[in-house]
Amino acid sequence: MDSTRLELHRGDITRFAEHDAATAAIVNAANSSLLGGGGVDGAIHRAGGPSILEECRRLRATTLRAGLPAGDAVATTAGRLPARWVIHTVGPVYSRDDDRSETLASCYRRSLEVARDVGARTVAFPAVSAGVYGWPLRDAARVAVHTVREATGADDPGVDVVTFVLFGDEAFEAFAAELDAH
Ligand code: ADP
Question: At the top level of CATH, which class does the domain 5-181 belong to?
Answer without folding.
Answer: alpha beta
